[in-house]
## 1
Amino acid sequence: MKRLAKWRLLPLFAVMALLAGCGEPFLSALQPAGEVAQLQFDLMLLSTAIMVGVIVIVTVLFIIAITRFRRKSENEIPKQVEGSHKLEIIWTAIPILLVFVLAIPTVAATFKLADVSPMDEKNEDGKTDALVVNVRANLYWWEFEYPNEEIVTSQDLIVPTDEKVYFNLIASDVKHSFWIPSVGGKMDTNTENINRFWLNFDDAAADEAGRIFYGKCAELCGPSHALMDFKVKALPRAEFDQWVTDMKAVTEPVQAETAEAQAGQEVFNNSCIGCHAVTPANTTPEAARMGPNLTDFGNRTLVAGILENNEENIKKWLKDPEAIKPGNKMTGKYDLSDEEIDAVTEYLMGLKVQE
Amino acid sequence: MSTYAQKKGVGAVIWDYLTTVDHKKIAILYLIAGGFFFLLGGLEAMFIRIQLAIPNNNFVSAGLYNEILTMHGTTMIFLAAMPLLFAFMNAVMPLQIGARDVAFPFLNSLGFWLFFFGGIFLNLSWFLGGAPDAGWTSYASLSLASEGHGIDFYALGLQIAGFGTLIGGINFLVTIINMRAPGMTYMRMPLFTWSTFVASALILFAFPPLTIGVFFLTFDRMFGANFFDHTMGGNTIIWEHLFWIFGHPEVYILILPSFGIFSEIFATFSRKRLFGYSSMVFATVLIGFLGFMVWAHHMFTTGLGPIANAIFAVATMAIAVPTGIKIFNWIFTMWGGSIKFTTPMLYAVAFIPSFVMGGVTGVMLGAAAADYQYHDTYFVVAHFHYVIVGGVVFALLAGTHFYWPKMFGTMLNELLGKITFWLFLIGFHLTFFIQHFLGLIGMPRRIFTFLPGQGLETGNLISTIGAFLMAVATIVLLVNIVITSVKNVKVGNDPWGDGRTLEWALPSPPPFYNFKQLPLVRGLDPYWIEKMNGNKEMTPAEPIGDIHMPNNSFIPFMISLGLFIAAFGVMYRVDHAWGLPVLIAGLAITFGSMMVRSIKDDHGYHIHKEDLLEDEDKGVKA
Amino acid sequence: MQAEEKFTPETWPASPEKSTLEAKNKFLGFWLFLGGETVLFATLFATYLALKDKVPGTDHALAKDLFEMPLVFLMTMILLTSSLTSVYAMYHMKNFDFKKMQLWLGITVLLGFAFLGLEIYEFNHYVHEFHHTFTSSAFGSAFYTLVGFHGAHVAFGLAWFITLMVRNSKRGLDLYTAPKFYVASLYWHFIDVVWVFIFTVVYLMGMVG
C-alpha cells in the first residue's frame, strides 16, 4: 500500500523534494529524520495527493465554466436548471470514499504514535528498559531529566539514535509545547497532567544534520515564546552511554582550576547556585530546580537557547538577560559587577563533563 | 404629510442613528463600526508582517507583538467579520423574506450597542496599560499568568459584545421563523436567509459556552476563583474545551453567511437559479450540525488520547463532504449560465479556488497524526487565513459591492472595485500561500521574531510584500467609497439588472417600512419569476392598510453604556476604592434602563393608509 | 386583534400568550433564549462534574461531607411547589381571572423567597462550618458558580414577577400584558427544571460519593 502510494506520487515527490530544499535538515518537517516524522510525512503525502486530485478536478470544471459560459448578449436567458440527482450523488459519494481512504491510515497512525506501553513495563529495579526522558518546560527554558539514569540536564537534550525514546511532558508555569520538527510532531506540556509520547532519532539523518536538531516551543507562552528553542544532540548509543557515565561521575561541584575561574565559582556559589545546580543528580525536588542545570554548560551548543556559546555572548547574557530574552525569570535576581561577570563566565566555560 | 422624508440637520441624524430600531439603519451602523474595526485589525496585521519581514527585527518589542497578534485575531473575528456579516444580515435578510422589520427591533438595536461598547472597551486597553497578550484563544495558564489588565479587557469586552451577538442570533431566528411573507415557505427562502438562519442557530448554542468560559476567566482573575489554577484543583484544559466548543462553530458562524452571499451572487450573475437548491440547504444545515462535533481537532496535541483524536479526526474529515457538495453546486450554477463578471462576481469566482485551497488543508489538518506536525505552526496560520480571508473576507468585499446600492441607493465604481479585487487577490495568495511551507519547515505560529539561518527568511519577506498589496487594495476600496458617496448617483430598484430575490423588487434604499403591501411569493427567486412573467413588481398579498411601526429608543444605548461602565468597575475594583461604586453605578444604569423599558409602555405607532397612498401619488421615495 | 383592546372572559382568546404577532415573536424568542440557557447550564454542569471534589489538600471538605438531605429536599419541594402555583396562575390568566392570577403569583413569589432564603442559609453554613468558599478550591468555585447561577436566576425571576404584578396591578389583563406574565412563568419553570438537575447531579450524586 505504502509503496503503491509512493509510486503514484512521483510527480508530487519531485515538487516536495524541491520544497524540501528550502528547509534546513535540522529543522524541517519535510526532511523527516526519524520513524515518527517519516510516518507523518507519508500521511502528509497521501493527503496532499488526494487533495491535489480534488483541486485538479475542481479547477478543470471551474475553468471550463467561467470561460465557456460568459455572457454574450444582454438579452440571453439561460435555462433555469433545478439540479441533477445523478451529479449530486456522484459528488457526494466520491468525497465520502476519499475521506475513507484518508481516514483509515490516519486512525492507524494516531494509535501507533500514542503507543507508550513500554513506559509502563517496569523491571525489578522499578525502572523501564526503554529510555525515558522527563521533559519539564519553563518560561523560557527546558529541563530534561533521565529518571532511569538519575541525572538532569537542561537546554540540550541528549538522546541515543535508532531506538525509541519515550517522553513524559509537563510544564511548571504556563503551557508550552514540545516540538522537534524534523524528528516528529509536537505534544503539549500541560500544567496539570503529564503527557506521554515517543520519538525515534534516525542515525543517518542525524549525521547529515550535524548531530544537532532544533527543538521549539510551539505554544504561545509569553514575550519570549519565539526564543524558547532547545537543541537535540542525537548520538550513537555508545556515545550516549559514555555521556551518561561522565555525567554521573559528577557528584560534587567540580572545583575550578584557574584563579579567575575560582573567583567566579565563589561568586556563583553566592549569587547563582540558589537556582542553578552544577551537579546532575535528580535528587533535588522539581520545585527547587528554578533555573537550568549547568553541569555540562561548557558543552552547550548555545547560550540561552539562541546565542552561540562563547565568552562574549555569555557576558552579554549575564549583563542584561532582558535584552536577549524579554520576560525571562533571571532578570533582576542578582547584582554582579563587570569583573564578577567576567569571573563567572570563566567558571561557566569550564563546566564540561566531557572534553 | 410625509414628515419622515424631510431633510434633517446633522444633530438630528446622529440622534436618529443613536436611537434607531430600523434594521436598515442598524445595518449601516454595523457596517461602519465593523468596517472601522476591520481597518484597525488590518493595521495590526500590517505591524505583524512588518515585524516578521526580516529576521531579528525590532520594529515592535516582544511583549507588544503579543498584544498586537492577540488584538488582530480578536478584533478580526469578533469585531470585524461577525459585525460586517450582521450588517448584511440586517440589511438584506428581512427584505429577502418579505418582512417589514426584524422580530425584535428594540433588541436589534440593543445587540448593536452591546457589540459596539464591548469592542470599544476591548480597544481602550491600548491606552490603559496594555492590550491582552495571550492570543485570541487566551489559553488559561498564560491568560492567568498575564500581568496588568490586558486579559481583563479581553474577558469583559468579549462578554459584553457576546451578549449582543447572542441577542442578534435569537432575533434573526424568530424573524425567519415568524415573519416570512405569504408564500415564502422554508424551501423558497434565498440561500443567504437560510445561512443566516443556520448561523443564528449556531450562535444560540455556541455562545453560551464562551460566556461561561469567559465568566470563569473573569472569576479567576478578578474574584479569586480557581477554575484554571491547578494548584487549587483547577484544570486549564476546561478552558480549551469551552473555548473550542464555541470556537469551532464560530468558524461556521462566519463562513455559512459568506456561502450565502456567494450563492446569491452566483445565481444573480449567472442568470440562473442555484443548482441543487435543496442539497445546498441540506449541506448548510449539515455543516452547521457537524460544526459542533469537531471542536477537539483544535486540541489534537493537548493529549486527549488516541481514541478521542481518532474520532474527532474522522468527524472533521466528514465536513469535507457537504462542503464539497456546495463547491460543485456553485460551479454547476455557472455551468450553462450567462456569466457577467461584475466586481461581486469576480470575488465569487475567485472564492472557489481560494476556498478549496483552505478546505483541503483543513482536511489535511484533520488527519490527527499528521496534525502533530502542522499544529500551531504557520501551516495552520495559512489554512485559516485561506478559509477566513478566501471565504469570509472575499464574501464581505463581494457583499459590500453587491449590496451597496441596496443599502445606500448608489453604486460603487466598478473600475475601482475591480482594481481592489485584483490587488487583494494577488496580495492574499502572495501573503498566505508561502506560509504553508514556512510552517512545514519549522516556523511555529505566534513568534515575534525568527533567527537567521533557519531557512525562514525568503518566505517571510514574500509574505510581507503580499500583505502590502492587500493594504493598498483596502485603500483603493476606501477611495471608491468616498468618491461614490460624493457623487451619489441614485439608482433604481434592481441596479444590477439581474436581481432574483425580493430585496431587488424594492426601491434602493427601501422605504423605512420596506413593503407597502406584503408581497405574494410564488416560488424560489420570486422577483425573477415576476420579471419572467413580464411583471414590473411583486404581486401584493394584501390590500394597502395601516402599518404598525416601533418607536425609536435611546434605552439600548443606555443599557449598553451601563455595562460598559460596570466593566471598568469590575476591573479596577481590586486596585482602587472607586471600583466598586463604579460597578454599582454601571449596573444601576443598565438595570434602571431595563426597568424603564418594562414599565413604560411602548406600543409604537401606525403609518396610516392615507399617507401611504399619498406617497404613492407623489412618487416619494421615502 | 389589537394589543390594547379591552376584553371580557367571553371574548378572551384561548391562547392569549400568542394572539398577536408581537406575542408570537416573544413566545418563540423566549423559547430560543431558554435553549441558549440550557447550553449555558449544561456547560456549568460539565465543569462542575470535572472539578467536583478537586481540592488542594486533604483538610478540605468534599461533596459527601457537605450536603445534607433534609435541607436540600425541603428546598426542592418548595421550588417544585412554586412551579405548580405558577401553573395555577397561568390557568387563571387563561380564564381571564386577574385577581386569582395575582394571588397565585403572590404565593409563587413567597415560595421563591423561601427557597432563596434557605439557599443563603445553606451557603452560609458551608462557609462557616466547612470553610468551603468560592476561593478555597476549584471544587468550591465550580459549586458556587453552578448553584449560584441558579440562585441568581431565581432572584431575577422574583424581581421579574414582582415588577409585573406591581406594574399591571391597575390595568389587568390584555393581549399586551398576558404574554408578559406567560413568558415570566415559562422562565420560572425553566429555573425549576434546572434545579431538578442540580438536585440530582450535585446533591444526590454528591451524597453517594
## 2
Amino acid sequence: MTGMTRRSLLGASVFAAVGAATGCSGSSSQSGSTSGGATGTLDWWDHFSSFKHLNDDWAKTQSPSLKTNVAHTYYDASKATQAFQLAHQANKMPDVYSNVIGLPLPALVSGKWVHEVTIPADIKSKLPKDAFTEGITQLDGKLYGFPMFSFRQSSTLVWVNKDHWSKAGLDPNNVPTDYAAFKDALGKLKSAGIQPLTLAIGADGGRIRDQVDDMAQAAGFPGYQGLQFTTGEYAYHHDAYVGVIEFLKQLNEDKLIMPGSNNFGVVDARTRYASGAVGTFIDGIWCAGGSKALAPTIVDKLASGQILVPTSGMNPWCYRGRPAATYFVSADSKNPDVAGKLIASFMSDDYQKGMVEAMDQPPLNLDLVASSNVVDAYKKGVEYCKKNVFLMPQAIVKNPAIARVDALRKPVTPHVGNIVQGYLGGSIKDLKAELKKLSDATSADRAQALTKAKAAGAKVSEADYAFSDWKPGQDYGAAK
Amino acid sequence: MTGRSVRLRTTWIWIFLVPTVVLYGVYTIYPIIASYWYSLVEWNGFDADQKFVGLSNYREVFADPLFWNSFKVTLFFMLLVVPARVLLTLLLAMVLNSPKLPLIGLLRSAFFIPVVTTTAIIGVVMRFILDPASGPVSTALTKLGFGGVDFLGDQHLALPTAAVLYVWKFFGVTMIYWLAALQTIPYELYEAARIDGAGTGQLFRHITLPMLKPFLIIITVLTVEETFHNFDLMYTLTGGGPYFHTEIIEIYIYRWAFAASIPQLGHASAAAVIFGLLVAVVGALQLWGVYAGRRLRGDQR
C-alpha cells in the first residue's frame, strides 16, 4: 500500500484551496437567485424597524396561504442600500423588497430592478386614486407597486415627556406652537433641571435637513426642499429658511439644546428621548413607535404637538409629494405572482391594524388611526397631519420624462442639514450667503441634469418645475 | 539536478503560489483596476449602464472644496498623530524594555489590548464615554467646575479628540516595533558605557538614539501610512462631522459611494484613485526608508 507523501498532501490542499476560491467567485449563470419558486422560498427584505415583529409574524402566517415559505429579513436603513447593491450585482435579489434604493422608477425599470405587479381588484378598490401615479408607481400603464403610507405625515412634530413637562409646570397636552412660547417652555424645563430639547443634527444631517424643510414650509416658504412651486426656482436663501435656522441658533446659544445634539444621529437623539434623558424631541410621526421599540416604558409619558410656526396664529401647513411604491417585486423573482400576492396582503385589515399599532408612518387610510388602540399622542399627530399636510405639485407628475432628469441629479453638499450643523457650531458665519450658494449649486445641478437628459432625447424643460396655479393650503391636482 | 527535476520543482513552486496569486488578484488587484475604470465612468452602482465620461469625474473632484477639505483634514490628522505615536511609544518602549521593571509582561499586554479590540466598538464606546450631557468624562469635569465639554461635537475639539483616541488605540503596535528595535541593541554596549561612567542621558544620546535611527525612519513611514486608513474609528466617532471638520478622505469617498441618495461611484472612485496616489507616494517613501535604514545599519556595522 502506498501512503500519501507530504508533497502530494500539500498539492491536494492547494487544489482544494483553488477549487474553493474559484467556487466562491462563481459565475453569474450559476449564482442566479434561488429564491422564489426554485426552492419554494419567497425572500422578503425591508428596512422598517417598527414593523420588524409584525413582518416576522406576517411572513409566518402568509406562508401556508401562499403555499411557499416566506422568509422575512430586516435590514437597518443605513445598510439596506449597500445590501441591495451587492445583491443586485450578484443576482441574489430578494423576491420582495422595500423601496430604499432611491432611484426614480424609470431607472429601476431600465436597470431590471423591478417586475410588474398585478393587484387583485378587491385590494385595488381599497387604494385611493392618488396612490397610482404615472412615473412614480407606474410606467407606460404598467403597475410596479403601490404606497402603503399616507403622504399626510410629518418629520417635524414636537414630542414631549409628560413627566418632565409637568415637573417644570408646563401642560404637556398643550404644547406651544410658536417659536417664542416654545422657547419659553424650554427655558422652564432648563430651570427645573431638565435637559430641554434634543434634535438629530449630526450624522449626515439628513434628518435636520428634512425638518428645516418642513419648518420653512410652515414658516411660509411656498415650495419644497428649496424649490418654489410657482416659479420653479431654487430659493434656499428665502427668509423662511433663514428664520428657521436663526431660531435653532438662538435655542443653541441659550443652551436649550442638549449638548452633543450636534453630533447625534436619529437613533442617538431618540434614545435620549425614549430613556427620559431629555424633555422634548422634534421627530417624525413615527417617534411613538420608534421610542416604544427602544424603551417601552416611554409610551405612557408620550405627548405631542404640531410643527412649530414663527408666530402664533400662523397656519402650520406643509406639502408633500405623491408617495412612491412601498414595496417592489424583484425583476429576478422566480415567482412574481406569489410575490405580488404577498404585497397585496399588506392591504388586508389584519396587516393594516398591525401597522397602525406599530405607530410608525400612518397608513393610507388615516381614519383607521382614530379607532385604533394607540396612544393619544400618536392620534393627535396623525390628526394634525390630516388637516395640515397637503399634496404638492411635482414636475414628475406634470411630465413623467422628468424622471430621466432626476436620475442624473447629483448630491449637492453642503446641504441644508450640513449648513445648520455648521451654523450652530460656528463654522459658518454668513448664513444667508451660504444658503444662496446652496440655491445656486442646486440650480446648476438641475441645469446639468436637464442638459444631459435633453441630449439623450428626453422632452423636458425648466418650465416643468413651475406651477403658477398653485395655491397654499390645498391639495394640488388631487384626484376627484 | 536534471532538467526534468528543475521543471518539476518550478511547477510545484507555481502550484503553491496559485492560491496567493488568485486571492490577491481577486481581492486586491481586481478592485484597484476596477476603481480606475469606475473613475472614468458615470455610474450609480444600481444601473446596468456605465457611461464613459473620460476625466470628468477627476475635474469634479478637483473642483470640489470639500475634497480639498478632506485632503487637508487627512494630512492634519497625520501631523497630529504621527509625532505623538512615534515619540511617546519610544519613551514607553524604553521603560518597558528595562529588565528591572516588575510585571513587565502584564504592562506590555495592557498597552497592547486596545490594538486587538475592534476599532468600531471603540468608536461607539468612546461616544458614550465622551457624551457631553451624561458621559463620565463630562460628569467629572462638571464636578471639577469646568462644565461639560462636547469633545466630538465641537469643531475645534473633534479632530484632536479623535487623534488622541487613535494614538491610544494603536499605541501598542508602535510600541512593539520599538521594543523589537531596542532589543537589537547589544546589552554589552550599555554595560561598557556604564563602566566608562556614562549616565542615563548619555546612554540615550550616544547609544540608544544612534542605534535606533534606521528604525526611526521605517517606523515613522509605516505609521504615516497607517494613519491614512482610519475610516472605522473616525466614522463611528464623528461620521466626519461636525460640518466636515473630521471628514478624512476615506469618509469623503464613502459619502459619495454609499451615503448619497443616488450613489456616484465614478466620483468616489476618482477620489479613491487620487487618494491611492497619495498612499503610493508614502509607499515609495517607505521603500526609501527601508533602503535608507539598511544603509544606515550597514554603516553602523
